[in-house]
Amino acid sequence: VLGVFGFFWVNFIIFVIVLFSIIYYYCTSTFNVWKKLNVPYIRGQIPLFGNYLNVALGIENPIETYKKAYCELAGLKYGGMFQMRTPYLMIRDPGIISNILIKDFSCFTDRGIYVDFSNEPQSEILFFMENPQWKILRNKLSPAFTSGKLKQMYSQIEKCGEMMLVNIFDELKKNPNEIDVRDVLGKYSIDVIGTCAFGLKLNVASDINSSFCSFGKSAFRPSIIYLLREIFLMISPAILKIVRLSLFPNSTTAFFGSVFKDTMTYREKHGVVRNDIVHALIQANQELVVDKSLSKDGKNFV
């Protein structure tokens, strides 16, 4: 019996060692990429997390991590780092940056942001799209955001500013010594977004139970689900196809989606014309004709 028991433990230990070796290899297999390419890079990679441990744990903002990497690569035109297992190339030279953004932009159109549109159809927007869909949609939407059309929204933004001043005076009446600037500016921002992007006059400062305000805050409120999604995404986008965690809460995307569709339907039905983003998008939507063969899933964008 002891022999069988000892044989079991030997095999178990061998299995654990092999499994650990496979996991370790997977977590570090990409860490020699920059060395092979003879590209200077930031050392000190942690298995699986690379240079991104503090971000993955929620200790540090990604901007701070990139800032540290930028300073560490001082004197170099470019250098490598690792976001989890993925090699990232940081460009520091203004000349190279200019070429990427202008001269060679056709080679760098994609932002490298993974979104599963089948799971998150509301995320199928210009910022997340890749070529050729991005180019087609951009050409159709660009006329809707010219400086002239944006200036037409100035009067609406001005009215939001007037409501913000009223809100400030009301807050000062309650407490003359201090004011919550973040809350005041947050409500002002929501009013501007509501009137320009959704065609709604909200005045959330006087409506403490505003659904628009509560759902807007929930979209950007930190959560464990959001943190897990970002970690899975940084490890491998394939994991998200299995666990299917959304970028924003489903209730939030459903709310804003229904509000926007209701606004567009009402305006098209009653012929309402208002100088805002909704009207510009309605015009772009009417002009948008997409070749189905260019779409990855064989569907139109609208």
State the shape.
Answer: globular
Portion of residues in beta strands equals under 5%
What's the count of strands? 2
Strand order of the largest sheet: 1-2
Q: What assembly state would you assign to the polypeptide chains in this entry? A: single chain
Tally of contiguous helical segments: 14
Order of helices and strands: HHHHEEHHHHHHHHHH
> Structural class per helix/strand content?
mainly alpha
Low-confidence stretches: 289-302
What is the share of helical residues? Answer: 55-70%
Gap from first CA to last CA:
70 Å
Q: Can you put this structure into words, describing what you see?
A:
This protein is mainly alpha-helical and 302 residues long. 56% of the residues lie in helices and 4% in strands. The protein contains 14 helices and 2 strands. The chain has helices spanning 2-28, 33-36, 53-56, 62-72, 94-103, 133-141, 147-151, 154-174, 181-197, 211-219, 224-235, 237-243, 250-270, 277-287, and strands spanning 78-83, 86-91. It has a two-stranded antiparallel sheet with strand order 1-2. The longest helix is centred in the N-terminal third of the chain and has 27 residues, at 2-28. The radius of gyration is 25 Å and the shape is globular. The N and C termini lie far apart (70 Å). Residues 289-302 have low confidence and may be disordered.
